[in-house]
User: Which sequence fits this backbone?
């Protein structure tokens, strides 16, 4: 790390002075800012991936309260972490947090690593997150490039190279590094991202009073709404989930999702997935139904009590939920029997959580 004398000789970054002044007057006060605790900075960065700040705020406070340091997280039970994460989505983040915490204990003696390369080597940490932690916690000169940075730099410099291509990523990484304020990389990175989050926003940015209006190529050429450029969009595929809240003598059934599919390690109700939307009577004639309810005797199915469309980044889940009462205990292969009153102890997807909340509110006798 450079000393004060060496830093004083660094050239002033072209955007830095304006950004630092703007940030001093306009930044949001957040619990993970103004700290140098790498562990807490890491937790905040992972939570804020694909999550709005207003939602992440509550989760961050709960998470660091329950797991105040990397050792406590490394020793945590997997199900407890997933339950704490419930509702945030993108559950691979929680799984990677656990894996990374355990590696910090095993490889670094429980001390969060202090170099970019070591930080980058941990599960779930990419270039952006490693640069953020390295610059915020240790003042290391690594430029961050996130969606806000892509947007601000593409507009100021009029760059129309698609940001979701290999070439685009290289162009913006090089530019961000060239512009980095090496005297205060952490503060500069925070300011640049905050400016993109609050001012140079995707739609209807405040160009009139922008601190970079006199040098913004996009504004000068009337291309603000066109930048940044993306080459392609993810193809979103529909899936059809039919869930059954099965009750017998005060018990119900759940299973833990495994493999590499969505919601891995979360629990779910008995499920029949179909290639397209199918009515209940069609489901009841299928092999999946026969397997689930083998030995159940008389099966009473309520009318559909909940239906919704749940949009993920690459999937649209068309879900239907039914309440089922059985005369005898059903086979339910692959599922575990639990007491109805314990269902809230298990981490489930936001989709299932929404159903259970609605059901408990409208039909409290079922719990």
Assistant:
């Amino acid at each position: 790390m450079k000393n004060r004398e060496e830093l004083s000789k660094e050239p002033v970054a072209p955007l830095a002075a304006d950004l630092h002044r703007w940030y001093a007057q306009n930044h949001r006060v957040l619990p993970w800012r103004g700290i140098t605790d790498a562990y807490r900075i890491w937790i905040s960065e992972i939570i804020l991936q694909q999550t709005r700040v207003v939602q992440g705020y509550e989760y961050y406070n709960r998470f660091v309260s329950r797991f105040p340091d990397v050792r406590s997280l490394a020793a945590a039970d997997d199900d407890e972490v997933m339950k704490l994460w419930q509702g945030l989505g993108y559950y691979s983040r929680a799984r990677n947090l656990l894996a990374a915490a355990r590696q910090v204990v095993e490889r670094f003696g429980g001390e969060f690593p202090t170099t970019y390369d070591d930080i980058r080597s941990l599960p779930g940490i990419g270039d952006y997150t490693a640069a953020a932690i390295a610059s915020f916690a240790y003042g290391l000169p690594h430029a961050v490039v996130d969606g806000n940075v892509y947007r601000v730099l593409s507009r100021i410099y009029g760059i129309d190279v698609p940001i979701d291509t290999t070439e685009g990523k290289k162009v913006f990484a090089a530019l961000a590094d060239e512009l980095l304020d090496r005297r205060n990389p952490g503060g500069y990175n925070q300011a640049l991202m905050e400016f993109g989050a609050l001012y140079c926003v995707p739609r209807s940015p405040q160009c009139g009073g922008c601190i970079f209006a006199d040098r913004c190529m996009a504004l000068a050429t009337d291309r603000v709404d066109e930048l940044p450029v993306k080459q392609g969009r993810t193809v979103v595929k529909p899936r059809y989930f039919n869930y059954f809240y099965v009750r017998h003598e005060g018990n119900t059934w759940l299973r833990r999702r495994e493999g590499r599919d969505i919601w891995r390690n979360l629990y779910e109700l008995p499920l029949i997935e179909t290639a397209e939307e199918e009515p209940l009577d069609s489901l009841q004639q299928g092999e999946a139904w026969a397997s689930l309810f083998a030995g159940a005797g008389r099966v009473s199915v309520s009318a559909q009590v909940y239906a919704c469309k749940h949009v993920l980044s690459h999937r649209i889940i068309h879900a239907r939920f039914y309440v089922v009462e059985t005369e005898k205990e059903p086979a339910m292969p692959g599922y575990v029997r639990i007491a109805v009153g314990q269902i809230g102890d298990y981490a489930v997807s936001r989709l299932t959580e929404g159903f259970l909340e609605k059901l408990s509110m409208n039909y409290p006798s079922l719990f």
Remarks:
- Residues 92-108 form the longest helix (17 residues).
- Residues 1-11 have pLDDT under 50 and may be disordered.
